[in-house]
Specification:
This protein has 419 residues and is mainly α. It has 3 domains: 71 residues, no CATH class; 162 residues, no CATH class; 161 residues, no CATH class. The protein is built from 20 helices and 5 strands. The strands form 2 sheets. A 3-stranded antiparallel beta sheet has the order 1-4-5, with no helix packed on it. Strands 2-3 form a two-stranded antiparallel sheet.
């Protein structure tokens, strides 16, 4: 496993390791210590390729667990993911249209009244206790789409202003209304509109004054529960997770790193470069790891991101050989590089090939640098350029984009890759 690339390990994490814990997360709110242990093992595997105690993490786990669009790798934080599953159970319990057998059993045997107003039973199971603990989070997102009002508790469900009416008004309101604790929203609905109890009691007058009579209902429909703007059976665990997860800022460069023609290992290396986490010699000198910061290829320059991955004559030679002055060629100055990258049109296949070509080149340059450093094996720019073109060609031939004949013909001929 340790011979897998970072991108290969990432694929294994998202497809295998994450799926294994998914089963348990779906049924139990796992203890925090267990989730921390699992996350540590996943982090060790990502960065080391094995489950060792020491982790040489290149990027913090907080950043790694952000979505790709926010500068992360899209690995989900296990605690947030587990919480989302428990919220899904909570929704099943309070959803009037739930078809879950388990939810029906919980409603009948444990939550005999309303989940929103009752205390958690002292002898409740771990999962039920965790559902009760997540009520406050749920209240920030849950609302009801009122249909005929027969399945929503009038006083205890948060159908009005996202709060149960009983928590916003004096307890006397229920007895003064004459509707009883078991009342449902249907009791104050008539075909002509809302029909609140007639009374001059102060509490009822206050409630009536604050009631929004424009609240919509549809007598022909059943009541539905909504999470933010998603209603009923359309609510997925990913929606729940997305609304409770830690958020980062959207990064402009993310779509250019993880583009449609991307190859995981090239995109991963590009991602590390964007986060300034490729261990070039200048960084190693700053950390006191080495005192030698000269470029392996030209000796005259200092090995830094901008030198190694763009300005070095060795890299420039490969860029010229691969691009051969085709469209959207990278500039030779680092100060212009970011503008070049972000000016590319991701919907244009030719621009996408340019990004792919650049990613292949910088990955190859980094491999060549390591090969010279660790194995003393040398390749010429011409050989590296030829390998790069071969890799680009392989990727293009496996792209679904290339099913379109016109795109395939133009792109391959522009890049002289038709043979
Ligand atoms: Zn150099």
């Amino acid at each position: 496993m340790k011979f897998l690339s970072f991108a290969g390990r990432l694929q294994l994490i998202t497809s295998v390791l994450f799926s294994i814990q998914n089963y348990w997360s779906a049924h139990f709110l796992l203890p925090v210590a267990v989730l921390k242990l699992l996350q540590r093992k996943i982090a060790h595997f990502l960065w080391n390729g094995h489950d060792s105690r020491r982790t040489k993490a290149k990027v913090s786990w907080k950043s790694v667990t952000l979505p790709k669009s926010e500068g992360g790798l899209g690995i989900k934080d296990l605690r947030d993911w587990n919480k989302a599953f428990i919220l899904k159970h909570l929704i099943a319990v309070v959803n009037p249209c739930s078809t879950s057998l388990w939810a029906s059993w919980v409603k009948k045997t444990i939550i005999k009244g309303s989940l929103w107003s009752m205390q958690c039973p002292y002898n409740a199971s771990w999962i039920i206790k965790q559902i009760f603990l997540l009520r406050d989070i749920a209240l920030q997102h849950i609302s009801y789409s009122i249909g005929n009002g027969r399945d929503v508790s009038l006083w205890f469900a948060p159908w009005f202003n996202r709060q149960p009416i009983c928590s916003s008004y004096d307890n006397q309101l229920i007895s003064l209304s004459g509707l009883g604790k078991e009342a449902v929203v249907a009791d104050i609905i008539s075909p002509g509109g809302w029909m609140l109890p007639h009374s001059n009691f102060h509490e009822l007058v206050v409630w009536k004054n604050q009631f929004d009579f424009s609240t919509q209902f549809d007598l022909a429909q059943r009541d539905k529960i909504c999470w933010d703007n998603i209603c009923g059976s359309k609510i997925r665990v990913t929606h729940l997770w997305d609304s409770i997860r830690r958020r980062g800022n959207n990064t402009i460069w993310a779509p250019f790193v993880w583009h449609k023609l991307g190859v995981p290992r090239f995109s991963f290396h590009h991602w590390l470069l964007m986060l300034n986490r490729v261990n070039t010699a200048d960084k190693l000198v700053n950390r006191g790891v080495t005192s030698f910061d000269a470029c392996f290829f030209c000796i005259n320059g200092t090995e830094s991101n901008h030198h190694l991955f763009l300005e070095c004559p060795f890299t420039q030679r490969i860029i010229q050989l691969v691009f051969s002055h085709r469209c959207a060629m990278p500039p030779d100055l680092w100060s212009l590089w970011y503008t070049w990258l972000t000016s590319l049109n991701l919907k244009d296949i030719k621009d996408c090939i340019s990004i792919l070509a650049y990613q292949v080149i910088i990955y190859s340059v980094w491999r060549e640098r390591n090969s010279r450093f660790f194995s003393e094996e040398y390749s010429s720019p011409a050989k590296l350029a030829s390998n790069c073109l071969h890799l680009i060609k392989c990727r293009l031939h496996s792209s679904t984009w290339f099913a379109v004949e016109s795109l395939r013909t133009t792109s391959l001929s522009v890049w002289s890759l038709d043979n």
